[in-house]
Amino acid sequence: MKDNSQETTHFGYKTVDKAQKKSLVAGVFDSVAAKYDVMNDVMSFGIHRLWKRQTLDASGVRKGQRILDLAGGTGDLTAKFSRIVGPQGQVVLADINDSMLKVGRDKLRDMGIVGNVEYVQANAEELPFPDDHFDAITIAFGLRNVTDKDKALRSMLRVLKPGGRLLVLEFSKPEHDVLNSLYDFYSFNVLPQMGGLIANDKESYQYLAESIRMHPDQETLKQMMEDAGFEQVTYQNMTGGIVALHRGFKF
Amino acid sequence: MPAQALLNSIAERVLNTALAADPDSAGRLKPVRGKAFRLQLAELPWPLTLTFCEDRVLFMGSDYDAIDGEVQTSFPVLRTLTDASKVTAALQNGTLSLQGDPIFAQHASQVILGLNIDWEEAFAERLGDVPGFWLAQGMAKLTSLKPDPSQWQQWLGETLSEEKKITLGQVEYAIFCDDLTALEQRIRNLEAGGS
């Protein structure tokens, strides 16, 4: 008998074939790429910049290191990493979506960030890099869109150097019921309307809200990272648990 | 965390705007480029962690752990970092704690303390020549009105010792010390005579 759970996955609240999810997610991000930064600022009231700052702090990145900014989108973290690692270091901005990568590349070049940044279109489940290659890996608001998260975590572990760390910044589960209710109302009533008004794309932002709810909560993701082989895994809730930053090491 | 990140974000914007307006900032950033410096001031709730880049400074949070040098002190002692002899004295009397290379700490402090901005030009670039000129003039006037702490100290000393006679003047203090020495000598003589 065929095990159906091995063949299907979530796309928001819908159940779709695993093979189909990649193209569906690609469709969402092709659609939102041009307005991605504006929408992030509007939807989060600019707080996403503070969440990313915290990710940068937890990364411990220093001069001369090699960093992978996975699902790096429009390059917010890459810009900061590039300045810290300097000309002796290297930052790889990787994203599965070509439209996002193009927006990110244009934005960083306009900011004068060139020389130590490389752009790679890559699937997180099968990273095209050698073993033990990066000092740190970040994936910010990207893991929930990956079809096989366990496989992606194992792939990240493989390309991370011993002593290196992985940081996963992702929407998570609010700690308090009241906040959870307010957040639900905002996500399913306000967010899609804003997506419709600003990006002319209500459906993509409906998917965003649904994909956040389907993403593993703090403890589940911690366990997934440990199962993949990461050690000393910890997480830090931000803004009441709306977002969580998980950190794990490879030894 | 968000409050710290928000304040760091604002401080970073302000400092980098100032550094961009200072033509000498690149020279001061050069010796500290790629390094991170942490300043823990007794008056602040969290440490200031600065990472120096080619043309700017990034404010990191207290979780950032790749630090090259750290100074723990208070606001009043902070300015002594520019003077090597005073740094030594502060280290000896325990008002300053330093981890890492002292030269790096001095260079790091100079990035901020050495700011020298042509306000007229900076304002003119953003607001136009005439408003820039007026604003710069206003700032110069305000700076000249700033009280000089050494003058205040002199005024306070004279008022207390000369006018109000609450404390002793320098001459009176010297006479008092001489009298005290003479008294000590007399006591010793008496004790010697008695024994």
UniProtKB/TrEMBL annotation, chain A:
The EC number on file is 2.1.1.163, 2.1.1.201
Q: What class of enzyme is it?
A: transferase
The answer, when asked if Transferase is one of the entry's keywords, is yes
Query: Which Pfam families is this protein grouped with?
Result: Ubie_methyltran
Q: Which residues bind S-adenosyl-L-methionine?
A: 74, 95, 123-124
Keywords for this protein: Menaquinone biosynthesis, Methyltransferase, S-adenosyl-L-methionine, Transferase, Ubiquinone biosynthesis
Summary of the function given for this chain in its UniProt record: Methyltransferase required for the conversion of demethylmenaquinol (DMKH2) to menaquinol (MKH2) and the conversion of 2-polyprenyl-6-methoxy-1,4-benzoquinol (DDMQH2) to 2-polyprenyl-3-methyl-6-methoxy-1,4-benzoquinol (DMQH2).
Per the record, the similarity remark reads:
Belongs to the class I-like SAM-binding methyltransferase superfamily. MenG/UbiE family.
Q: What is this protein called?
A: Ubiquinone/menaquinone biosynthesis C-methyltransferase UbiE
From which lineage does this chain's organism come?
A: Bacteria, Pseudomonadati, Pseudomonadota, Gammaproteobacteria, Alteromonadales
From TrEMBL, chain B:
**Coiled coil (UniProt feature):** none
User: Pfam families under this entry?
Assistant: SCP2
The UniProt entry, under InterPro entries, shows: SCP2_sterol-bd_dom (IPR003033), UbiJ (IPR038989)
Domain spans labelled SCP2: 15-111
Cited PANTHER family: UBIQUINONE BIOSYNTHESIS ACCESSORY FACTOR UBIJ, UBIQUINONE BIOSYNTHESIS PROTEIN UBIJ
Name under which the protein is recorded:
SCP2 domain-containing protein
Q: Which organism is it from?
A: Aliidiomarina sedimenti
